Amino acid sequence: MPTKSNGSKAKAAKPKARKPRTATTPTTPPPAERARGAARTVVDVPVGAVLEVTDRVSDLVEPFTARASAERQLRDYRTQLRRTVKRSERRGATARRRATSEARRTRNRVEREARKRRRTLEQQLKRNRAEVEQRVRRTLDERTSRAQDLVDQVNEQISALR
User: Fold this and answer.
1) Which pLDDT tens digit goes with each residue over 58-84?
2) Measured distance CA(57)–CA(124) in Å, rounded
3) Quick one: CA torsion of 116, 120, 126, 128, rounded to 10 degrees?
C-alpha cells in the first residue's frame, strides 16, 4: 500500500494514540474453558497411565509369547545373571586380596615397631642395670670401707685400753 507523501513530515511523525485497556479484556481463560481443561486433564491422566502400564506389560510379556523367544529371553537373562555374578565375584576377590594385603602390611609394621621398642627398652634396661649395679658396688665398697675403718678404730681403742 503506497503512502501519499506531500513533503510534510509533521504529519507522518505524529504518534497514534493507544487505546487504554479496559477491565473487560480477559487475561485468563473464562471459567467455563478452565473447567473444560480440568475435566480433560482428569480424564486424560488415568487413560494415559493405563496405556503406559499396558505398553510396559506387553514389553515384559512379549518375549514369552512363543517358545523360541521365551527360551532366548531366558538364555539372555541367564547370561546377564552369570555376568553379574562373575563381576561381583571379581570385585569381592579384589576387595579380599586388598584387605588381606593391607592387614599383612599393618601387622608387619606393628611387629617391626614392637621389635624396635623392645630393643630400645632392653638397651635402656641394660644401661640402667649396669648403672645401678655400679652404684650399689660403689656404695657397698664405701660402706664396707667405712665399716672396716670403724672396726679398726674400735680395735685400736680396745687395745689402748688393755
Assistant:
1) 887 777 778 888 888 889 999 999 999
2) 81
3) -160
Residue 124 has, within 13 A of its CA and on its CB side, a CA count of 6
Query: How many C-beta atoms lie closer than 10 Å to residue 65's C-beta?
Result: 9
**Integer Cα distance of 142 and 154 in angstroms:** 18
What are the DSSP calls for 56-69, one per residue? Answer: HHHHHHGGGSSHHH
Determine the Cα angle at 91 with ends 87 and 92, to 5°: 115
Threshold 0.70, pTM exceeds: no
Region for 7 from its dihedrals, namely left if φ exceeds 0, alpha if ψ lies in -120 to 50, beta otherwise: left
Cell of 92: 569381592
- Written as nine digits, the cell of 105 is 602390611
